[in-house]
Amino acid sequence: MKTKRKVAKKKGVKKKKAAIKKDILKDANPEHYFFVQDGTVLKNVLGLSKQLDNMADEIFMHHVNETRNDFSNWIKDVFKEEKLAKELLKTTNKDKTQIIILKHIIKKFS
Prior knowledge:
Layout: H1 2-25, E1 34-35, E2 41-42, H2 45-52, H3 57-63, H4 70-79, H5 82-88, H6 94-109
Antiparallel strand pairs: 1-2
C-alpha cells in the first residue's frame, strides 16, 4: 500500500510542475498582448526575454525607467507572476531584466 501512495504522490507532483511550465510559457489572450513602442507584439514572457536581445535601448527605456516598468506590470497583471514582477522593479537595465526573466523561467523548470 505504501508503494502505491508514493507513486501516486510522485505523479501528482509531475502534473503540478507541468501545469506551472505551461502557465509560464503560454500566450496571453490576444486582448492582453503587449504592444512595444516600435510595433512589436509580445505574447508571452519568453517572447519578451527573446525580444530584449534586439530591442533598441531607447525603446526599452520608454517602457522601463525610473517612473514606470511596463513589463513588470504586464507580467503581474496578465500572467499573475507577482514574484517575477517584483524582481523586475529592482532594475532599469535591459540585460539585467532579461537575466531576471530567464532565471525565473529556469527556476520554474527545475
